[in-house]
Amino acid sequence: MAIILVDVWTAVAFLAGVPLLALLLRAFARDSGASVSRYQEVQLAMAGRLVEALGGARTIAAAGTAAREQARVLDRLPELGAEGRRTWRIYGATMARTSALMPLLLYVVLGVGGVRLVEGALGVGGLLAAVRYASLAAGVGAVTGRLAAVVRGRAAARRTAALFELPELPQGEGRLPEAGPGTLELCGVRVVRAGTVLLRDVDLRIPGGVTAAVVGGSGSGKSTLAAVAGRLTACDEGRVLLDGVPLDELSGEELRREVGHAFERPALFGERVADAIAFGGGAAPGPEAVRAAARAAGADAFVRRLPEGYDTALANAPMSGGELQRLGLARAFCRAGRLLVLDDATSSLDTVTAREVELALARDVRPGTRLVVAHRVSSAARADLVVWLDAGRVRATGTHAELWQDPGYRAVFGDVPESAGKSAAEPVAGPAAEPVTEPPGREAVR
């Protein structure tokens, strides 16, 4: 504006180069944005592998595969370096062009101003003012460095925005009927994530009070079904009902009080072991309830061996994978409602301990419906109902003994002899089945 006030023609000479500068900056933002996005993606993948390796450091050391894991973590390092160098090349080229363009604009302004001075349309003071104002305006070329930071921020924001694109979990104010049995119904449920259909047209009814095992191959949708059943994620189509009430109409407090979860890799929260078991919304359970839940989950014995028992600080209580799972189960048992979802929550337990937990679940935990993501033949055999998933669809439902006749069902459990599946099904007698007296060692063989 100051140049225009001094002399319109010198201002026009300067503004003639602005579109070229805008094109340079736009090309820089486009080219560097794509490269920065790929750089961040590769960086994230490497960081994920590193976190996995650090979490399993003892296993890696015991297996003697440190060199292999190091190679796996650094496998994409050349790609990371290539994207980084490409980004800097684009940045350097843009800086060179803008650095050359700005002085050129000043020379154009000086030339036009000189002509105007010769013509008598512009005085010496006006020419000096126009050149100085043009020099100040040329400082816009330094925006390239700031623009690079904006490009990196935008690329990171796009990745973060993916989290906000997940379906929301709206809550209502409804309540469940008193003393309901825990009947779970999925009606036309469809779940799509990142363009991939995880569950499609699932229609399922699990009567209240039964134990239903969800089985299927890798990627069949077992964990997604478990998450939908407990409303840890929303379905894109269809509805999920508990005792006839849609889960999306329940209040958050009612939903979490009546639907419990246990996971394969539970995260523990709280200062002490007792706090980790009692963790949850609502009124805190008393010490006896915490110990009862730990006994049901097979955790009481090892917790008592800790330096301060249930008062031991979590930071001072190193635990194996199985012990961690037992504390996660104890937390779920402590606040068990009419529906309890166990998502592969006993995978790190040995067969005998897993059987003891199943018996305690039927005998010592609040009665209700159990939805169990199962990988073991024995877990499916002891369930009242088996839901067989295949590629996101319910392929069949029935008892384990009925489904075992299908070779495809047997293939879900891998190379298991047909006789093993039949023998595993023998002791099934519902959720309250009593342990069967057998010769020593037979249960371990199973």
Structural Rg:
33 Å
Strand content: 5-15%
Enumerate the strands of the largest sheet in spatial order, edge to edge or round the barrel.
6-7-8-3-9-10
Which residues form runs of ≥5 with pLDDT under 50? Answer: 425-446
Features:
disordered C terminus, alpha/beta, 446 residues, elongated, single chain
How are the secondary structure elements laid out?
Blueprint: H1 2-6, H2 8-15, H3 18-55, H4 57-63, H5 66-73, H6 77-119, H7 124-137, H8 143-164, E1 184-193, E2 196-206, E3 211-216, H9 222-229, E4 237-242, E5 245-246, H10 252-258, E6 259-263, H11 273-278, H12 287-296, H13 300-304, H14 321-334, E7 339-343, H15 351-364, E8 369-373, H16 377-381, E9 385-390, E10 393-398, H17 400-403, H18 407-412, H19 418-425, H20 442-445
Parallel strand pairs: 3-8, 3-9, 6-7, 7-8
Antiparallel strand pairs: 1-2, 1-4, 4-5, 9-10
Helix pairs in contact: 2-6, 3-5, 3-6, 3-8, 6-7, 12-14, 12-15
Could you describe the 3D structure shown?
With 446 residues, this protein is α/β, with parallel strands linked by helices. Helices cover 53% and strands 14% of the residues. It has helices spanning 2-6, 8-15, 18-55, 57-63, 66-73, 77-119, 124-137, 143-164, 222-229, 252-258, 273-278, 287-296, 300-304, 321-334, 351-364, 377-381, 400-403, 407-412, 418-425, 442-445, and strands at 184-193, 196-206, 211-216, 237-242, 245-246, 259-263, 339-343, 369-373, 385-390, 393-398. The strands form two sheets. It has a six-stranded mixed sheet with strand order 6-7-8-3-9-10, with helices on both faces. A four-stranded antiparallel sheet has the order 2-1-4-5, covered by helices on one side. A hairpin with a 2-residue loop joins strand 9 (385-390) and strand 10. Helix 2 (8-15) runs antiparallel to helix 6, helix 3 packs antiparallel against helix 6 and helix 12 (287-296) packs across helix 15. The radius of gyration is 33 Å and the shape is elongated. The model is unreliable at 425-446 (pLDDT under 50).
